[in-house]
Amino acid sequence: MIRKYRYGTPFDTEALTEKIGTAEGGFPYGKISLENGFAFTYIMDEEDIVYGLGESNRGINKRGYCYISNCTDDPEHTEDKRSLYGAHNFIIVSGKTTFGLFFDYPGKLTFDIGYTRTDTMHVFCENADLDIYVIEGETAYDIVKQFRHVIGHSYIPPKFAFGFGQSRWGYTTKEDFCKVAKGYRENHIPIDMIYMDIDYMQDFKDFTVNEKNFPDFQGFVQEMKDQEIRMIPIIDAGVKVEPGYEVYEEGVKNNYFCKREDGSDFVAAVWPGDTHFPDVLNKDARKWFGDKYRFLTDQGIEGFWNDMNEPAIFYSAEGLAEAKKLAAEFAEDTEGRVHAWTMQAKMKDIANNPEDYRRFYHNADGKKIRHDKVHNLFGFNMTRAAGEAFERIDPDKRFLMFSRSSYIGMHRYGGIWTGDNKSWWSHILLNLKMLPSLNMCGFLYTGADLGGFGADTTRDLLLRFLALGVFTPLMRDHAAAGTREQECYQFENVEDFRHVIGVRYRLIPYLYSEYMKAALNDDMYFRPLGFVYPNDKMAVRVEDQLILGNEIMIAPVYEQNARGRYVYLPEEMKFVKFLPDGTISEEILEKGVHYVEVALNEVTLFIRSGKCIPIAETAECVKEIDTEHLQLIGYEESSYILYEDDGIHKEYDKKENYRVLKN
Ligand code: GLC
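Above: the input record for the complex with alpha-D-glucopyranose. Below: its predicted structure, written as tokens.
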């Protein structure tokens, strides 16, 4: 059961697709205070687990820290960080009393979950203008399913997007991309996508291509497609300020950019230098911006990634002026009045400064609203702009789309990648923990920058990252400019990479089928063990293993030099190893704790009791996977329902899409 409680006059975020009437009576849990903004307080039972918050730091169980929904471009995902790129305000208290809450509030919202006081949950924000949805159900999983039902179906990418993709910030010319394609194809490492970061553009201008580097862009896109490789360009939020540049000129002329209080177009510096932000909260501007993607779809592009859409601000003219003033004082100062650290902090603070988010406004269909009050909706609506445009461009076709910033509701238009992680062992685990939380909030098509974005990766770290990425719907190796080259063929014993990624392709029939079932039934692709074994006291506390779909459990290795790891099996399972020689070993393990050995060049998974999964022969691209000849592995006398469609169009409901496979 879902009830809505309304406070003040909330902004309509369009997170929900279903209208729910406002409930009568007082709020059923904890205490609400409207004295100083808005605050919700709830005393947690010692045994309660708190799930949710989508893309956020720390554990699957969110207890014990403070998280702030405030979409932020912060590339240092250390444990102390409270805000990352997304704002996913859905939580579930699971224990003595079980209930879910969705705080539909698009501004900054703080979740103190046992941080200030270990037994107290305190959720608060500045303005008492929000809707809270209270969801009741038997279990946390049941609550998720109800919630997912009212926020609408999750985005479904084309099937090629389940292949492996290579990316790197710095690929610039046609030759750079051809080299990557060659590196993969010649080494027979499977690949389906190469991502184009900002350097493909002319001076980082959205919806342009550098003509010197790509004299025949359309021809190049086709050439790559002929090798079964899709080019996936990035689109950034900021539109370069440059007289004569069409997108800029049109935006200015039609008032499609966010404005300052005085009505002038707000200027924020991002990659291209000075930019304007498209007012994606305005219907007309959104349509206009979305239609711009045609420039690339007309040239054969079938997928995009939307970036810098928190929106990230390196600095504003106002912020820079303040910093310069202090710098001048600092330069003159001989008496220690301006401390070096103050100066350092000031320079750092000019980026993503809260002040700047109060300096511009949206015209939300006639209503002028200051950006900070709806900050968390920007990435959502930028991606929605694209999603709505794809419907106009080709309503029957699926496009690949994922975004960095997001709010619940965006999951209908695209997936997300989890931003600028690092080549750190701890980030394998961080990503693993985010996955089920993201699924709770509707984000199914997700994945991390495998190998790590910032810092230099190592061969073993990349292999272990990939062994998790084998299971994430989005499987992409991406690295920052200036870091060590991270394409799989750059390392010794390339056959190990060929094998690990090859296992992904062998598993695609199963992974795709489970993804589609989850998307079509508002279900989860990744679940915490506690959702499947709610009465198992050990299972509900496991933070480094996940259930994937209905049949398997995964337990990746995430420690340097580890030869394996401990796993907890809540029931008897078959331990499956994809060995480097192409064979598959299966071993029955009893319920309980086991140490399992997993070499760097092996991929492992666990098949739940009584179940089986289909395995294909490996292939070098998604199109070549032979789904007619599938092998079943797992328990004998079991069966599996395979979902399959053409992977291109949207005819999901056909009976022929389901096939029963018997072991
Ligand atoms: C941002 C993105 C990253 C990209 C870089 C350059 O940091 O998160 O993925 O490579 O910008 O465009």
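Notes for the reader.
The longest strand covers residues 130-136.
The longest helix spans residues 494-520.
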